[in-house]
């Protein structure tokens, strides 16, 4: 999609070192691998800039482009009583999002419920309490399992909304799009990030699981202290 009120930039991973470092940020990748339950591989990276649809009618019924990226029975599993999903996204808001600023909407609980997609979406419209919307400051990240039914929210204000998204799959997943990594980019991938950025030769997926009784890592995570998308 690339229309005046919705500019889409696809497969931007290699376009700027800032995007590359966002996609490989240890805090994000750590949480992603926790949800995947194993090694992660970057499968797509995009940005969106939205503004209000010129045809926006405040009196019309609100409809969203609800979808998911993988279905519940194929894309999710539980281990040690914890939920995992083999396709995960981080969606970082680069602008402040109030209630009218088009924050992502999701159908609560849909990431775990194996019913036909349209039935779940209809249930959301029938009971709007099930539709949750992101309202958050610039710099905040929504991390979600792609079994979750989600959509871009409705932008009713004068504000522009900018987001950056990285999709991660279990390490045997291919890239979502057709973009290949360039030889120049590939040559710079450090060995410890080879699986994250690049394909690997076998189906093994590097399982990583914990239980809720595992001790919490007491180390302070300071790498992102003071970080802000404007800096
Ligand atoms: O614009 C959004 O908030 C959602 C983006 C989205 O639907 C997707 O990345 O699949």
- Count of DSSP E strands? 10
- Rg value: 18 Å
Helix content: 10-25%
Average residue-wise pLDDT = 92
Count of domains: 1
Trace the largest sheet across and list its strands.
1-2-10-5-8
What's this model, at a glance?
This protein has 231 residues and is an alpha+beta fold. It has helices at 17-23, 26-36, 72-75, 117-126, 183-187, 194-197, and strands spanning 6-9, 40-50, 76-79, 82-85, 87-93, 105-107, 131-133, 141-145, 150-151, 161-170.
Which descriptors apply to this entry?
five-stranded antiparallel sheet, Jelly Rolls, binds 2-oxoglutaric acid, alpha+beta
Question: What would you note in describing this structure?
Answer:
The chain is of the alpha+beta class and 231 residues long. It has a single domain, classed as q2cbj1_9rhob like domain (Jelly Rolls, Sandwich). 18% of the residues lie in helices and 23% in strands. It contains six helices and ten strands. It has helices at residues 17-23, 26-36, 72-75, 117-126, 183-187, 194-197; strands at residues 6-9, 40-50, 76-79, 82-85, 87-93, 105-107, 131-133, 141-145, 150-151, 161-170. The strands form three sheets. It has a five-stranded antiparallel beta sheet with strand order 1-2-10-5-8. Strands 7-6-9 form a three-stranded antiparallel beta sheet, covered by helices on one side. A hairpin with a 2-residue loop joins β3 (76-79) and β4 (82-85). The longest helix is centred in the first third of the chain and has 11 residues, at 26-36. It is globular. The two termini are 29 Å apart. 32% of the residues are buried. The mean pLDDT is 92. The structure holds 2-oxoglutaric acid.
């Amino acid at each position: 999609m690339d229309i005046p009120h919705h500019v889409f930039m696809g497969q931007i991973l290699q376009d700027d070192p800032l995007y590359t470092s966002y996609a490989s940020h240890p805090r994000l990748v750590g949480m992603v691998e926790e949800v995947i339950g194993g090694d992660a591989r970057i499968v797509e990276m995009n940005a969106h800039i939205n503004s209000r649809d010129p045809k926006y009618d405040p009196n019309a019924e609100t409809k969203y482009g609800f979808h998911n990226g993988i279905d519940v029975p194929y894309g999710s599993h539980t281990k040690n009583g914890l939920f995992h999903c083999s396709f995960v996204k981080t969606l970082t808001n680069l602008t402040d999002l109030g209630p009218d600023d088009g924050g992502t909407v999701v159908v609560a609980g849909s990431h775990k419920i194996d019913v036909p997609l349209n039935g779940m979406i209809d249930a959301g419209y029938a009971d709007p309490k099930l539709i949750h919307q992101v309202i958050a400051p610039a710099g905040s990240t929504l991390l979600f399992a792609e079994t979750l039914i989600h959509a871009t929210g409705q932008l009713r204000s004068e504000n522009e909304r900018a987001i950056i998204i990285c999709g991660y799959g279990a390490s045997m997943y291919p890239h979502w799009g057709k973009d290949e990594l360039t030889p120049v980019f590939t040559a710079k991938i450090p060995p410890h990030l080879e699986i994250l950025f690049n394909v690997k030769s076998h189906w093994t997926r590097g399982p990583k699981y914990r239980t809720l009784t595992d001790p919490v890592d007491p180390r302070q995570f300071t790498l992102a202290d003071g970080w802000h998308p404007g800096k």
